[in-house]
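The record is given unchanged here:
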Amino acid sequence: MIRSLDVTTRVSPELAEILEFHANNPDALETATLGSVRAALATGEAGEGYEADRLHPETSETLLQELDALIDEFGVEAPAADFIKQSASEALSRVIEAVMEQSTQPPTLADVQEAMQEGLIAHLIGEGVLDEDEDETLSAEIEDLIDRYGADAPAEDFIHYE
């Protein structure tokens, strides 16, 4: 089930880090759910892959309470990935900003995709803003964002620089 962006704003940064670690674990045999993340956190077998794992026990208890509230509302089988706010890569963030500079209205993800299809990426490659090999990756990335958040999601919400 696709969740709205609003649910991700209800997740603390510490819990988001834990959910993201489990959702993106390449060694996992099954898709991480709220229930599986809760079980790992409760048993202390959450792993060493994130800073929140080394939190004080009281903080772990608070995270369990936060996770329990999500489970009460969405169920133990809800995919952990649904509660992680996805952001654009640095290259896609540059594309979004370029569309914002050209638009009179705040652009949506569909607006960004349309601009990309109309040659914006080639223009940015020509200006040296993007590398030549990023075209296919950016197309797949914008499609993934649209699939997950919808074509009408405000593109600006996904800008992210590391």
In short: The chain has eight helices and no strands.
